[in-house]
Amino acid sequence: MSIVPDAVMAFLGLYLAPLLDWFSQRVYCDLLRRDPDHLLQQVQAQLDLKPLEHLCADYYHAAGPGARPTHTVPQLVRALLVGYLYDWSLRQLEWQIRFNLMVKWFVGYSLGAAGPDHTTLERFELWVCERHHRVFFDSVLGQIDADFPEARAQAQIGDTFALRGNAARERLIRLIRHSCQCLLRALQHARPELAVTLALQYKDEALFGSPQEVAEYWLDEAGCAARLQTTVLAARACATWVRSQLDTPASLPPDRRRPIEAWLNRLDKIWADEVTLRRDAAGQVAQVAIATVKGHYRFGSATDPEVTYRVHGTGEHKSELGYNVRICSPLFE
Q1: Where are the domains of the chain?
Q2: DSSP state of 5
Q3: Which of 22, 68, 99, 108 is most deeply packed, by most CB within 10 A?
């Protein structure tokens, strides 16, 4: 075992921290020189993180007893940003900061620093979500728009179905009933007297079911078919009556009429997409059945009518209830 002279140990004791810092900087300089096109280097050069750091500056108490924080606000801001950039979980982010040198450099830690653990990152993320919910998105997007004004003004076309909807799927009968409830709420807001007349004219049980009604999943095929027919006929009668009364005695203002017409149109789409109506010789609907070939972009929930099913081919076993990407342009905003 080699013996280090006391003078050398004393020297290291005095200058160990500056030497480690110098060594860390030398390693980072060499690393950055070898990969100048790395995404994090481009983000570092292009993105101004000062606004984010300023908004999050009150995460720690500015005065009072206690030790200085182990992890600074700029480090925590950069940690969350790189986590969002690469879509890492907080545990993955903890590991990347500790062992990925490029990430460690970007976040702002020296080679020997451990970085924050996932619980520290979680506390900061929860604080940001409570105090400044959209700050990361708005700040980064605002700088991108400012840096690329011409691209911002151009139309962007997406050909994909990539955004999963934040709404629960509704079975067909539930979807029809829920849509009718939304129609009646819109009618109550615009024409309360019509809503009262409608409630007296149409039995709620035919449209919305009775309180003692057996849940749909307990019904056999014939029971489901009978309930579907009763619900569709009642809903169509309700929608037809509302349409006939919209301009009686006087036309509604557009802002009050529009929500009612929107729900009427959605119900029309449900008939067209989901069911087959068989008529008798007199032209009256005699039978309602679930359509064998369903329409494209079908409604999946009245909670959020923008959420639809997109038909890919003939099978829908892997279908997702989501939002279709649209043409985006400042002209349409």
Answers
A1: 21-60+69-153, 172-291
A2: -
A3: 108
